[in-house]
Predict the 3D structure of the following.
Amino acid sequence: MPASPARVRFHRFPDHPRLARRACMLASPAQRQENSKGQHMKKLMNTPAAYVDEMLEGLTAANPSLVLDGESGRVIRRSCGAARGKVGIASGGGSGHLPLFAGYVGEGLLTTCAVGNVFEGPNAGSCIDAIKLADGGAGVLLLYGNYGGDRMNFDMAAEMAEIDGIETRTVLGTDDIASAAPEDSAKRRGVAGIVYAYKIAGAKAEEGAGLDAVADIAARAVAATRTIGVALAPCQVPGSDKPTFTLADDEIEMGMGIHGEPGIWRDKLKSADAIAGEMVERILAEKPAGSSRRVSVLVNGLGATPLEELFLLYRRVKMLLDERGLEIVQPLVGNFVTSMEMAGASISICFLDEELERLLAAPAACPFWRVG
Amino acid sequence: MPASPARVRFHRFPDHPRLARRACMLASPAQRQENSKGQHMKKLMNTPAAYVDEMLEGLTAANPSLVLDGESGRVIRRSCGAARGKVGIASGGGSGHLPLFAGYVGEGLLTTCAVGNVFEGPNAGSCIDAIKLADGGAGVLLLYGNYGGDRMNFDMAAEMAEIDGIETRTVLGTDDIASAAPEDSAKRRGVAGIVYAYKIAGAKAEEGAGLDAVADIAARAVAATRTIGVALAPCQVPGSDKPTFTLADDEIEMGMGIHGEPGIWRDKLKSADAIAGEMVERILAEKPAGSSRRVSVLVNGLGATPLEELFLLYRRVKMLLDERGLEIVQPLVGNFVTSMEMAGASISICFLDEELERLLAAPAACPFWRVG
């Protein structure tokens, strides 16, 4: 049994100045009382402290295919449990990104998910629970976004799981091209593109493939996927007295991360076509060598951006890819990975090969996404 | 052929002071140029004039099951066309509410949908196109929300369709309990609860029922459904220089309509449990006489409210219904009927009988909702 996992918890960006400031605020309960003095985003909630657990209660009450489990009480698993003899897939991450992460637990997708507080990684105890509950005897793939706190806790959990005889592999989502240069692609953050890795690895596991094969296809899905986001307005962590960042009334930020990590530039709001154009150009500049002409596209809403506007973006993305002779299969448009009430969108392109395309099209079902 | 249908267009609330002011602004292209002087909500768009048509282009490009058709170029129909010998269901309404209305075209749901400009009803030409394209030889049910402009244009279109030998029936969504007293329930606005009528009437039509039977079950679904909304922040019509209403930083409005029509009260933000509690109480006070203990619940996001917070609301709704001995079947939580970037939520309860429940559970598939 893990020793005091609750103490082993890390904020996602202990070393990021903008978020370290917020983390510091969060760490002090006294300061949480100062809400009414600061800028205020309206939240439909009871208390900041109860936000995540009450959300999970509602999520599982509304979706009987999802069950809350684990000693930590912070793991979502399939109600049917892990399939015997199949590779399990465990993910995890901070809350505030629904449907990510916990919403993707389901047939052909994740087996379990460890749930952290808003914008904080899950604690090590939850990671251990997620691994154990995902184990069907054939090992567990740990598939989650590349954030320091998450990595540290999942690595620790993987070591403890191995002691218990559960074999694991780890693949990290690193699709955010705005977060590091191409030569440092392993340092990139994981954002919306991770849903391609979930879908593709989930289908492979469902087929009965072994742990190495499932890990390999997950890594190939990550390597084939590029994402960039644009923010129009910030969100606010429950209990915090300030939004995660500020933007002027006519300003947007290109390349911002899903917790408000700084992007590439700030400038005046441009047309949807101009924004989509730049995002597509930046992604295509990193088209994987030797990739085919078939791609999937995800135009993802960050939370407060109307579906109408996501379709406006998709319209332009399709035109641009058509011009390049790229054929879109299985386009996805909607809120797949959000940042609560953040306004903006991200565009992901998954450059397919035959196997990736087949697995992407395989049947899958979670409360927020159904394929086949 | 209709004579100049484009001239026959009405704003949704010509007689509503708050919206009449906006409609007046929209009518003057010169005034649209004043955006930069006024309060500004950031939109991912190209021009206000192109917002709807470009959105429809993206919507249909991303969803091959939907096709843009009609002489007006403003009708969405199923790509497979109307089923021969089956009753068609045509709906319609203003844009800015996705997935409503056009997004519900699909098997077991709508056959066609006439699309208006943002927050304006579809013109009569589009309504006529929607009826013709929905006709499979067994008549067409017109099923849409109770708004003046929509009614006038659909009524006119129904008359012209009858001349062409297409039999029609009309059922109006009137589920918003905040919009008129119970004794005036026929005057109530149609809001999120209309998706229950879509689903139930769509299933009945799919079974091969006749026009009267489909209209009857649609009317029963409307009569069995109650909705109330709460707004936390407004939205802004593309090209307008002001949001549809204003709320103070700590203020909410109970009972507000999906275009910003005034509600029942304004007050300080309360806890999610208190808000859900009042909404449920108001709905249960109008529980249809003789209804069973089985209900479906829709907790609907208006656009900018995080899914997390919808689940917080659902959690409390379920507790309260459990206490009353009401059993929830097929709960729905998500963005089903939005108002662009409006923040807030609505709660709908559909009081089921055996047939309504069976039809609600029947298979259906549109890009935004799949059952069975």
